Every structure is written in structure tokens, then in C-alpha cells.
Amino acid sequence: MHVSVGPGQYIRKPFLLEEIGSYIKSFGEKVLAIGGETALSVSIEQMITGLTIENLELLDSVAYGGNCSWSNIQKLIEKIEELKPDVLLAVGGGTAIDTVKAVGYATNLPIIAIPTIAATCAATTSISILYDDEGTFIEISRKSKAPNLVLVDTAIIKNAPYRFLAAGIGDTLAKWFESKASIQKAVPNALNRTAVKIAEELYQMLLEQGPSALEALKKGKDDPAIDDVIDSIILVSGSVSGYGGDDCRTAAAHAIYSGLTIFPEIHETYHGEIVAFGILAQLVLEGKTEEEILNLVSFYEKVDLPSSLAAMNLHELSDQQWKELGEVTVTIEDMDNMPFEVTPKMVIEAVKTADMIGRKAVKQ
To answer: Residue 154: is its pLDDT beyond 80?
Structure first.
């Protein structure tokens, strides 16, 4: 049995990057930072300060390319062959970190993940979500490695737009709904049963702490709930994937997310926001009552998550687009984790019904 539970170490504190050198020096002296342009701009000065204190050399800071695609991964591999760093810093959100995890796998270099937003659990998992250069989902790649170390500077994360934290709540909620669906096809064991229990506790914690954390962020106030939500999104959520593996990682909610990415209009909507809507559609697939779905929609309103297609900039789909959505979505491997066969027609009806319920609730 082989289990990749997560990173070697996770550290969270404000202004952590000013001490970054003390954590990195054991991995090597030559450092290459790869990440999103915004993420690098808000963190580079602190990182340089922390590296200089320990006499470590920052070889370069490089934008990852905008999508976790094979072409961007290859360009970064070539950059590494040129610069020959000892260690990689993965700086930014989930797509940037996933890209560096794939690069680290290919080059066998240690990775320090520095999430600048709390929107996914990418910093603590051993998979990468691959897209084409236009942002359409391609595959879940196992040619990826879990970071050796995760450094969470809450001074940076709390200064990011609150919408990122809301998206992280949406992505993390899915752990519960998807794991309890996908485990029905698995043989129960200590690992996957533990993963589902963690996912349930995450769900309950986010119901309790999510609204207050988001409200505090909006007002620029500090609140212990923010740290709890950050840890839940980045670390604890990743442990569900680590312990559960393919038995309880993703299901229909993420498959519907991936299917919706075929529409360019949705590419300005964050991963966790689309996944949150995917949860509603999954509940329809599972035959849950409208009341149960409305209860979740009510929570979405408290944490600014979308509950309709229009809220994600999808206003009208043609019959051909609906057909394509259904056909693409059932090919996504996440959908195979559902405990029953899902057809394109079922996907179309589930998305339409979830959209109808969400729109009706918002109008009330």
C-alpha cells in the first residue's frame, strides 16, 4: 500500500515570509520562485528579505503561464535546466501551485508551497489538475508531488480579496458531499473511513465559522475564525484527499465543474465557486429534496457563493451547448466515483434543476 498523505510540514503565521530563509536553507542555497504575477508581486519583497538573511540566492522569479498546462510545465522545466536551482518556491493559488508540483515531479526538486490565497487545498495534495492553454479541463495528473513544506503567511492571505476565501469554502464543502458519495463504491478501511469523518467535520465547521470569517475579512478585522477557515481549506481539506485517495477525493460536483469549463464565459469564475454550484447539481442527481438543496443555497448566500448559472456569467445555453455539457461531463473521471451510472441526460437535467432552484431562492 502506498499513501501520499500530504506535505512534510505545514506552518502558518503572519509575516512568515520574512523568515522564509530559515525554513528553506536545509533544502539548498539556490532558489527559483514560480507563481502567479500578482502573487509574486505581493510576496517577493518579503521573500527576498527572508532569503537574504540566510545568504540564500534567489535566481529568478518566473510567472507560471496562467494555466496548469503541459506546455507551461515544459517551459518551466526548460527554465530549470538553464538556471539549475536547488529548490522551487510555488507561489500563488491552486493553479500556480499545481503547475510547480508537476514541474517538481519532472525535475525531482524539493517544493516549498507558498499559497497567497486560501481558495483550494492544492498546496497540500499530491495531484495536479491539468488544463489546456485556454483553461479547459483535461485531466487529473498523478505526475505531481506533494510539497515538502507549506508556508502560509496569513498577513498576505488576509489582505487578498475575500472572494478567494469564499471560493475556498465552496471547494472544501465539496469534500463532504463527494466523499460520502464516492465511498459507497469503495471497500471501507481505516483510511477512507477516517477521510469521510474529517470531511464531515470540515462541513460542520464551515457552516459554523464560514460566515463570521468572511464578514471579518470584509471589514478588515481579525477573527480566530479566519485562521480556522484557512487551515480547513488548505491543510485539513488536503488530508481528506491524502487519506481517502481515489476512494473519496472527488465526484459529480467536480465533474460538473470540469464540464462547465468548456464555456469561456465561466473562466472568470473561481474553481471553488463553480464547484459549489456543482454540489447543488450533485444533490439533484442523488435525488435529494428541494428543501435540503435550499438549505445549502441559504448558506451560499451568507458566504457569497453562486447558486445559479447566471451568477457565473452563463445566461443562455443553446440545445447544442447543453448536449455538449452533458457529454463532456460524464467523461470526467470524477463522475466515475458516483455510486450509480450517470448519463448525459441526467447531467443536463441536474444542472437545469439546480439552476432553477437557485434562481428561485435568490428571488425570494
So the answer is: yes
